[in-house]
Amino acid sequence: MQPRRSDRRGSPLVVRALTVDALLVNPSAVRCDLHDLRAAIGANAPDEIVRLYTGPLLDGFHLSEATEFAYWLDERRNELCHSYIGALRALAEQQEQAAGDAHAMVGTCRRLVAADPYSGVHAQKLMRALDASGDRAGAIQYASEHAQRRHADLDLEPDPVMALANELRAPAGPRRHAVPNGTQAPRRAGDRVRIVAKLVDVDRDRHLWAETYDRRLTDIFSIQTDVALHIAGALEAELSVDEQTRVQRRPTADIQAYQLFLQGRQQHIKYTPQAYHRAVEYFDRAIERDPSFALAMAHLGMAYAELTEHGAIRSDFAYERALNAARRALDLDLSAAHCTMGHLKTVYEYDWSGAEEEFKRALELSPSNSDAFAAYGRLCAALTRYDESIALHRRARELDPLAHRLDVVTTLLRAGRYDEAIELGEDAVTLDPEYARAHATLGWAYLLSGRHIDGVAQLERAVSLSKRSTLWLGQLGQAHAMAGNTARAREILGELQEQAQRTYVSPHHFAYIHTGLGDAERAIDCLERAVKERTGPAYGMKGSFLLTTLQDHPRFRALLMQMNLG
After folding, report:
1. Domain total for the chain?
2. Rounded to whole angstroms, how far apart are CA atoms 264 and 282?
3. Count of H-run helices and E-run strands, the chain
4. pLDDT in the model for residue 548
5. Helices (H), 26-135
6. HSE toward the beta carbon, residue 94, CA cutoff 13 A
């Protein structure tokens, strides 16, 4: 909590010195969030207290030879921290009483134990919240961490937290629930990297294996192999010859090519046309350095497919590049290559059974391939197999929460489960307020729930964050039409038509607005072009919540027949 200088000019911060030891501050020129926080405490408003409290008062501020001031400041810091902890307790109790709010309670309890890390009461609250959210293993593991912290820092014996852990601990079975757990983030200095890895048996609360690696960055792949083999050995798992070969296979011998690949991957998950183009550039550069880099080829193919689905590039050129890259990667029978091939069979060929075989092979080769779970989930959603799709997307999000935040939300909307979609959509926006796709998806969750004003506002935000995305612009036009703002919807239609004179715009994006305006014939005209061109998310038309009013139209049903979806 720090004072902030007013933007108004001509208002001096200090008016005059009263004595040698005192200064008079002009309150109109200084704003401090402490005033707002105290007002929230006085109003007993837990939400506001939690929002406004940002840390210790005047954190880092020190006056030498001012003992009385130091005592005073410590008292004020303790007072505010106590109010903050009380507010978190109140929020946790509210969330505990609210059905279905377990995940929100986990977040609140994590803040609570961060503020008071030695409290057994707060630790038990977090453990019960984790258990209620379905993460019993995490609850048991936190008990161990809490007990170790109390012993190491305070030399205290375990408190009732361990008793609760014993209650939660499942009876030991023939299989152990062991999880890899990095105790220290990887550190890099120049061309060297340090990684600390350990394997924990959470059922029995004991470490199975731990190792510290301090090597050159060029040895990163041998570290990965070593960790995988140690984990398998600790679990007494027998790896087949094929599995051992895959574990020991290096994606590339060129560490710079691998770094370019990782940069491309980081761009890929941003879900904007600009980011996809940058991803393609990084993957191309990685392949240029190592022409045998199959993993980069597979991701290059997926990036081109995503560009087409986003409507940012013509599909004829993109499909040729994507297919060539995927076929080259398939020579090594790589999981990522089968994933990309499965997606191409979905979005370009409408070969649903062939795509499913590819996804199954991808997961057989790598059961932790989050991209394969996500792409397989999109296939199931396109076939209106929503329960399967939701399960696959949830697994993808567990494996890679950053890359696969929203596919499950979209599928929940297709399945008509709007309340769940809103909760997850709001979480995604909170996690990354600058993520355009999160705002657009949440906007549709609001719209389909009848909250038109909120929905349009979220889509407006998505467009402002990704100005070159005609996907969100088309959906914004449809949203305005659905909310009764037909004039604004037609303005946006005109903007798309103007853009189409200068650059490629997917006909699918025009179909959104025509659908919202109730012009079914023109909407289906655009969809027929989209299917023919294999552009936009045409493969997902069946059951799409954006095309609900067209589902019973004879021309729409005929179009589904062409796509083998009849």
Report:
1. 2
2. 5
3. 26, 8
4. 96
5. 33-42, 46-52, 67-97, 102-115, 120-132
6. 11
Q: Which residues pair with 214 in a beta bridge?
A: 194
Residues 115 and 208 in one domain: no
- Residue 5 pairs in a beta bridge with 30
Boundary-marking domain end, from 198, 221, 242? 242
- Of 168, 196, 218, the position where a domain reaches its end is 168
Distances (CA, A) of 461 to 350, 428, 454, 477: 33, 14, 11, 13
Q: Which domain holds residue 38?
A: 3-168
Residue 239: its H or E element: none
Give the mean pLDDT of 53-63: 73
The two tokens of residue 411 are 């599928």
Over residues 296-305, the mean pLDDT reads: 95
State which amino acid sits at residue 263.
Q
DSSP β-bridge partners for residue 207:
200
CB 178 within 8 A of CB 200: yes
Exposure string of 271-307, with b = 16+ CB inside 10 Å and e = fewer, is bbbebbebbbebbbbbbebbeebbbbbbbbbbbbbbb
**Structure token pair of residue 443:** 């906007």
- The number of residues in the chain equals 566
The token pair at 300 is 């290059």
CB atoms within 10 A of CB 371: 25
Interatomic CA distance for residues 541 and 555, integer angstroms: 13
Q: How far apart are CA 170 and CA 172, in angstroms?
A: 6
* 221-236: pLDDT as tens digits: 565 655 555 555 555 5
Give the C-alpha separation, 560 to 530, whole Å.
Answer: 12
Residue 90, token pair as written in the block:
């109140």
Give the C-alpha distances (Å, rounded to integers) separating 51 from 73, 87, 317, 392, 432.
22, 10, 49, 35, 17
| Cα of 444 vs its chain's centroid, Å | 18
- What pLDDT is attached to residue 111? 87
Residue 99 contacts residue 76 (beta carbons within 8 Å): no
